[in-house]
Write a structure and sequence with these properties.
By secondary structure, the protein is mainly alpha-helical. Helices cover 67% and strands 5% of the residues. It has one domain (3-23, 47-184): Four Helix Bundle (Hemerythrin (Met), subunit A) (Up-down Bundle), CATH 1.20.120.450. A hairpin with a 2-residue loop joins strand 1 and strand 2 (145-148). The longest helix is centred in the C-terminal third of the chain and has 36 residues, at 149-184. It starts with a helix and ends with a helix.
């Protein structure tokens, strides 16, 4: 299997993992930030382990990243302009403003999953149309140097796995970790 084919397969696979991970987060917690860091018995590790973002914020972040950073970088690889924003060092203030706007009309899991799917489909179409030279040539300027389409898509996969991990930790350990913290105060 070629690197492009393998990477395209992983792009599809990570979308399925994201869908699964968000599906096991209880509906009443989709917009609730993890409370672990504020628990009186919480050590610093709990905040970094569970993060600050609710599940829908994680999902929004994935879609925002792919639409704002990954796709423009892929377009650059096939002759488009350099992206206006850095793929490696995102502009979080830009994203935070977009998140606040998206929350206003009552953002939902299904709409975010649909948006992510559309973005993944676009990336897969771009991959299928790319030549090996476009795939391997380093054309996208980032804060860490010039990178190739292979790097861009691989980073998207890595980024997806990172946030899928966050979703899974919150789905699996939320209550158990809070109960454990409560028990620590009794000893």
């Amino acid at each position: 299997m070629s690197s492009m084919t393998e990477t395209a397969s992983r792009l599809q696979e990570t979308e399925r993992l994201i869908r699964w991970a968000i599906s096991i987060v209880p509906v009443d917690r989709l917009l609730e930030p993890p409370p672990h860091a504020k628990h009186p018995q919480s050590a610093k590790g709990f905040k970094t382990y569970f993060g600050d973002w609710p599940a829908l914020r994680q999902l929004f972040h994935l879609a925002f990243y792919e639409g704002t950073y990954a796709i423009p970088a892929m377009q650059c690889c096939v002759g488009g302009p350099q992206p206006a924003v850095d793929l490696v060092f995102p502009q979080m203030d830009l994203e935070e403003k977009a998140w606040q706007v998206a929350l206003a009309p009552g953002l939902g899991k299904d709409s975010l999953l649909s948006r992510l799917h559309e973005l993944r489909e676009l990336q897969l179409q771009m991959l299928q149309a790319m030549s090996i030279e476009e795939w391997e040539s380093e054309r996208v300027e980032t804060g860490l140097g010039t990178v190739s389409a292979e790097f861009v898509v691989s980073k998207t996969i890595q980024h997806s796995l990172e946030h899928t991990n966050e979703l899974m930790k919150n789905a699996l350990y939320w209550e158990r970790a809070l109960e454990w913290l409560d028990r620590q105060g009794l000893t």
